[in-house]
Amino acid sequence: xxxxxxxxxxxxxxxxxxxxxxxxxxxxxxxxxxxxxxxxxxxxxxxxxxxxxxxxxxxxxxxxxxxxxxxxxxxxxxxxxxxxxxxxxxxxxxxxxxxxxxxxxxxxxxxxxxxxxxxxxxxxxxxxxxxxxxxxxxxxxxxxxxx
Length: 147
Fold this sequence. Notes:
By secondary structure, the protein is an alpha+beta fold. The protein is 20% helix and 27% strand.
């Protein structure tokens, strides 16, 4: 099996990619490749990226920045974002930059902790905890009993 993997794959092409009847996935959302989702290594996390379903690598991540949103408390993570920076294979810092949104942020951070242990996710974890504490405070301040 191929040991070189892209940073992400999508199940359909994103803008600029060409549709293929033989491809299972699209490398970086554009190039059709004969790779099945179950052939991807464990460091790939199912996400929605560029408006389509896909798989994002949690390997070679060098930094993340989590931006919580407190605008819509009824939607826990819907408007939250996680910016991801990948290192290049030779260790330089100029790598790919991607953003994911929503509830898939937590599983992605969990995989980063496993497959990119040198990446510091402590600030993202702290902000996630603060967001959950904030939501807890909102729920406990509701006076009407839940039925």
